[in-house]
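Input chain follows. Return structure tokens only.
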Amino acid sequence: MKNFEKYTRQYFPVKNPPMRWAQKDYVDHAPIWCSVDLRDGNQALINPMTLEEKLEFFKYLVKIGFKEIEIGFPAASETEYEFCRTLIERDMIPDDVVIQVLTQSREHIIKKTFEALEGAKNVIVHLYNSTSVAQREQVFKRDKKEIIDIAVQGAALCKQYREKASGRYLFEYSPESFTGTEMEFALEICNEVIKIWEPDENNKVIINLPVTVSHSMPHVYANQVEFMCDNLINRENLIISLHPHNDRGCAVADSEMGLLAGADRIEGTLFGNGERTGNVDIITLAMNMFSQGVDPELNFENMPEATEIYERVTGMKVYERQPYSGKLVFAAFSGSHQDAIAKGMNWRKDKNCEHWTVPYLPIDPEDVGREYEADVIRINSQSGKGGIGYIMEHQFGMNMPQKMREPFGYMVKHVSDNAHRELMPSEVYDIFVKEFINIQSPVTLKEAHYTQKNGITAEVTVEKDEIEYKETAQGNGRLNAVSSALMKMLGIKYDLHTYTEHAMEHGDTSKAVSYVGITDESGKNYWGVGIETDIIDSSLKALFSAVNNMIAE
């Protein structure tokens, strides 16, 4: 690409980082979660949520387990102010839920923020100012000392207003654009704020280290987080928070590595909504922990509900491939994938496995409210016999012989290929019915009578082209005897190589299903299926279906 030379690294890596975090291989406990859907997520919408939509979303966030929810920037607009007041005046905030509000380091904004919070029981006041080189030089045109003064003055004002307020107020500070700030300066400004707020065991301070713009690879951010955790004063009374954005597509990795590096808390949104490329997707982050056997302490057992509410109140869409929540994330179209999944599911059932290890599925879809039949095996021209067989068995109760699955798979693929689209399970079953079940043309069985002496003798009457034929033949069983009579009367030859049967597994369980496979003189296989209440009748219908398929071809 042209013009690549005009870009340069805007981050400040830690020199000689200890990288203790790299010795850990997974996040072993849930962080403190803070949803910023109602602030970051809302401000990023083309059409911000209405008051009633915000209230509905707030109740849902509480329902799935969030204990800290950033509700907005009350001094920014009357809409934000009204939402804050409505939550408080309608007594909608549970006692164990803390609301968080954002404020700039300016006295009139801090004053209005505390006015908006009057009557709230548990609050986090989140103070921020920008600290990066780019912001200092280009936006504020101030030196480091002046930037520190902004933070310190804001911190002092927050402390003064808290003394007059009722309720429990905690403080949070963000050196906004942290990842574009020299680490020594980020440390200095945070420590100056900490000195003002004087955190203790009962009033801890949150130091938030935002990836306001993602500039580096995740390991660089982890080193920066570890540096801050190692060097901030009064660390035992601090909560280190992360607020990653997704400009490089690394927000989840930034968060996971940052937690390994010592962070305690995550600010993010459902589905990663937020400015530009969005915030860290809390659903992905939480479900990653879940997939490693760690309780994320958020409840996403009904992912379709989460998706429906989010899409309705925000007007955004959840991408089909969005991890854990997209419509296609558990879907397998590839034949080899489908085969492995089907075998893995059967293996799990046979072994009564405690742990989930099914190939291609990192978690059990049912754990997030999805269904195997509707979500996992999807049929198109790329699908194979394993997936098609899985649908036929688990959705329609048809446990086809293994030799039959391949030719049926090719039939389904052919239909999908010509239609240029995915086939629904019902359409797959319709193909099966049309091609195999109870085929009565061109040869129709009219009667079959049996006598038993030195084996079975069958007297068989059939109709073909409106002409009746009768023949008698012997066999080692009813099916074999009828088959011999059929070949004699029609002057055909074939080898009956497969016969299986089972009771209907779905629907009418009083019926029997029989499968017959035959091979003609050229070695080509043909299949038929019979369904009847009587097992003998179903086996004969399967035989005639197979023979009719052979004759028709």
